[in-house]
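I hope you will forgive my troubling you with a question about protein structure. I set the record out below, with my sincere thanks for your time.
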Amino acid sequence: MEKTNWVIDPTHSEVGFKVKHMMFTNLSGKFNLFEATIENEAEHFETSKISFSADVNSVNTNNDDRDDHLTGADFFDAEKFPKLSFVSTSLKKISENKFQIVGDLTIKDVTASVSLDTEYSGLMTDPWGNTKIGLSLNGKINRKDFGLTWNSTLETGGVLVGEDIKLLSEIQFIKQ
């Protein structure tokens, strides 16, 4: 069967996350630099093999001091581990446009299986004749599972940074 290749459209995509801050509000962040590809058979999404990587130095939480802390040794240790990556291992159709993508996420030197709930928008052609697909991806990981263990205890009890990280991404791919 004919293979179809897709690359991410970074100008119409966002790769983000949320984490509890001081145990009562969500703090949002994103990666500004990332790459992703999909390979599937004759444009059938169910057959997709997906790979993704992000430059951890591009983390952006709208606070330079916090971003510097995140790229330092307490968290991503970008000097030693400049990228995080995801490679799909399975894709299961749940309903007409809903899928579960399972894959190996690598942060620093730790790889673990994660599951992403995915909404697939289908095929469309943009005004310039490009064939595109859109994905909304959501998942959750425990940051400690990936060696991101730094925290600070609050005077009132609890901790500064939550353990659970919500993964939230809106992505467009362009057919090659």
